[in-house]
Every structure is written in structure tokens, then in C-alpha cells.
TrEMBL record:
Domain of life: Bacteria
Protein's cellular compartments: Cell outer membrane
Pfam families tied to this protein: PQQ_2
Keyword Membrane: yes
Span of domain Pyrrolo-quinoline quinone repeat: 75-306
Known partners and oligomeric status: Part of the Bam complex.
Protein name: Outer membrane protein assembly factor BamB
Keywords: Cell outer membrane, Lipoprotein, Membrane, Palmitate, Signal
CC terms in the record's Gene Ontology section: cell outer membrane
Family label: Belongs to the BamB family.
Lineage: Bacteria, Pseudomonadati, Pseudomonadota, Gammaproteobacteria, Pseudomonadales
Length: 380
């Protein structure tokens, strides 16, 4: 187990450096380009959430449910805030190293821990409803449809827990790849399906009631001689819009799949470990090398590509009004035009970095910096 974890960390280090197994020289991150600021962001409120992402690589992402936003730090400090004012509604100290956060739905706030636990809190009060033991670390938010809670563990198992009690309903076994990135994407749970991306470059859909396979689709094929070259993790999570499931793999492809059948609707070569966004018939991808690309869903061709932020360890993108927003390792939030990818705005959120995907609800964008700074922003 320790060797496997070490291999995972090694793979992640290679990604973060933007290098490959045959690199001879590591290039530094690109300098910030000068931009003409067309859009300005106003801070509505700011709140400090404990120690944020912590010293090691974690990807804790806030979640919004109605008028509330929920966030957790690495040490298990979970908070509920009014998403319009930033007022603290409740705070809970779990005294556990949280690594999968935050899932929310059906009156529950769900987090996973490095100790292999899933903890459910009451969304109104923060009181603990139940906790359950799973097979290994939980590095992504659990998901729920109100009937079951589905969690993907670091060892690529999918586990369904009863939403009412936390007791196990089913477990689906997968064999992880020999070498993987440190992390998993969060599963998606509908009324009928539990869908997850695996370290082997496959997407699998299970019957949510019994955990039986409904379909399986390979998005990326491992290639190359070394195990590092053959890493094709789906770490950035899945995105569901309508009946289309969007996915991107490391050293593989970005693709759109039909949710019910798993059929590939379109695909394009891409390498991403953070995920995609979708809007106006286009898909936006933060690539591992620091390029942001817009893909036309109908033709799978690139509409534009912005490579000015090479090796700056970009977060997953998110659509915000007419723009695409994403963070970088120095804590800058960048806005580019959906039309042509040009820079239109920039705001520094957290000098420790901005790794978590921005969260957009209506006309508000929420950015969660690595040090724990949670900021609500609006376009001026």
C-alpha cells in the first residue's frame, strides 16, 4: 500500500511540473501576460476556512445548496455560510483529516477522510447523522440522490451507503492502474445510475440500486513504454449536462458520452487532470500543460486555444456569464472570453494558490484558495 501511495505522489509531481518521462529540462511556469482589463470583479464577502487545502496535495471543493455554501478544510473544520452574505450559520470540527469534500444534497453535508470514513452531517445544524468505514482514502466528495450515498475510494472501488443510516448497500470492485495520480473524480448519482471515471481511463455506469454494471466505456488507451507514460487517470471528475456526460483523462482524450448507453458522441485528444466545463455548445478544458482550450461539441475541433499560462498548474475551468474562469498556482483567478479565449480580467484570490475549481451559481462566483480563503465575487 505504501509503495502504491508513493507511486501516486510521484505521478502527481510529474504532472505538476509539466514534464514527461523523457524530459531533459524542466521549464519554469510562464510569467503572467499583461492584459487589457475589460471585466472587473467585486468581492461580496470573504471568509477563512481553517487551514484550507493543507500542505499536501488536496482538492477540497465547496458546494452550494439553495442559499447556503458549505466548505471544509484539511483538518475537518466544516462550515455552512449564507452564500449571499458570508454569515456563518454553523461550524463543526470533525477532528479528522478530510480529503474528500464537500458533497451536499437531500439535507446532508458529506465528507470523506484520509482514514477511509464517510461522514454525513445535517445540513441545517451541522450535527452528525452517521459515519461509515470504507475500504481506503476518500479523495473526492461523496454524492447522493437522497436514497443512497455513493463514494469512490482511492483504490478505485465504488461503494453505496444507505443515505438514512450509512450502512453498506453494495460495493463494486475495480483493479486500479499500476501507477495513478493522487486523487479520484467525484461520482455522479442519478435516480437510476451511479457513474464514475476510473484510473484505467474507463467510465463505468452502475445500477444505483444493486451496483450491477449497466455500461462501460474506455475513453483513453494507455500508450508508451514506461508506466508513467501509460497513466490515463480520470481525476478531474465528470460533468453531466442534460443527457450528455463530459469527461477528460490525463494523457488521453476529452469526450462526450451518452448518459444512458455510454456511447461516445465525440472525442478529441487531450490531457487533463482537473476536468472540463461546458457552455453555449462548447467544452472548455484546462490541459495539463497549462493551455486552456475550447472544443466545439458538434465537430470536436478546437475553436480557440490559449497557451499563455503554460505550466501554471491551472484549476478546472468554470463558465461565468460570457466568460471562462479558472485559477492558477499563484492564486490568480483568470477570466477569458468564451468567444475567442482572450484575457478579459484577473483577480488575485490567495497567494498560496487557487487549486479548487471555481463554483458559479447565478451571478456569483465562489473561489476557495489553498490557504482556506473563501471569496464570493460578482462582475462589476
Amino acid at each position: 500500500m505504501m509503495a502504491w501511495r508513493y507511486a501516486a505522489v510521484l505521478a502527481l509531481a510529474a504532472v505538476a511540473a509539466g514534464c514527461s518521462s523523457n524530459s531533459t529540462k524542466e521549464l519554469p511556469p510562464a510569467e503572467l501576460p499583461k492584459i487589457t482589463e475589460e471585466v472587473r470583479l467585486d468581492t461580496q464577502w470573504s471568509h477563512s476556512v481553517g487551514d484550507g487545502q493543507g500542505e499536501t496535495y488536496n482538492l477540497l471543493v465547496p458546494a452550494v445548496d439553495g442559499d447556503r455554501i458549505f466548505a471544509s478544510d484539511i483538518n475537518g473544520d466544516v462550515v455552512a455560510l449564507d452564500r449571499f452574505t458570508g454569515k456563518t450559520l454553523w461550524e463543526k470540527d470533525l477532528d479528522r483529516p478530510v480529503s474528500g469534500a464537500v458533497g451536499v444534497g437531500s439535507g446532508m453535508v458529506l465528507v470523506g477522510t484520509l482514514k477511509g470514513e464517510v461522514i454525513a452531517l445535517d445540513a441545517d445544524s451541522g450535527d452528525e447523522k452517521w459515519r461509515a468505514r470504507v475500504t481506503s482514502e476518500v479523495l473526492a466528495p461523496p454524492a447522493t440522490n437522497g436514497d443512497v450515498v455513493v463514494v469512490q475510494t482511492q483504490d478505485d472501488r465504488l461503494i453505496a451507503l444507505e443515505a438514512s443510516s450509512g450502512s453498506q448497500r453494495w460495493i463494486y470492485e475495480n483493479t486500479p492502474a499500476v501507477l495513478t495520480l493522487r486523487g479520484t473524480g467525484a461520482p455522479i448519482v442519478t435516480n437510476n445510475l451511479a457513474v464514475a471515471g476510473l484510473s484505467t481511463g474507463k467510465v463505468i455506469a452502475l445500477d444505483v440500486q444493486r451496483g450491477l454494471p449497466v455500461w462501460e466505456q474506455r475513453v483513453a488507451v494507455p500508450q508508451g513504454r514506461s508506466e508513467l507514460d501509460r497513466v490515463v487517470d480520470i481525476d478531474g471528475g465528470l460533468l453531466l449536462a442534460g443527457d450528455t456526460l463530459y469527461v477528460a483523462t490525463y494523457q488521453g482524450r476529452a469526450a462526450g458520452l451518452d448518459l444512458e448507453s455510454g456511447r461516445i458522441l465525440w472525442q478529441r485528444e487531450a490531457s487533463s487532470y482537473v476536468g472540463v466545463a461546458q457552455g453555449f455548445g462548447n467544452v472548455y478544458v484546462s490541459l495539463a500543460n497549462g493551455t486552456v482550450e475550447s472544443i466545439d461539441e458538434r465537430s470536436a475541433t478546437a475553436l480557440w486555444s490559449n497557451d499563455s499560462l503554460a505550466r501554471r498548474q491551472l484549476s478546472a475551468p468554470e463558465v461565468f456569464s460570457s466568460y471562462v474562469a479558472f485559477g492558477d498556482f499563484e492564486g490568480y483567478l483568470h477570466l477569458v472570453s468564451q468567444v475567442d479565449g482572450r484575457f478579459v480580467g484577473r483577480e488575485r484570490i490567495d497567494s498560496d494558490g487557487l487549486r479548487a475549481r471555481p463554483l458559479v451559481v447565478g451571478d456569483m462566483l465562489y473561489a476557495y484558495g489553498n490557504s482556506g480563503k473563501l471569496v464570493a465575487l460578482k462582475i462589476r
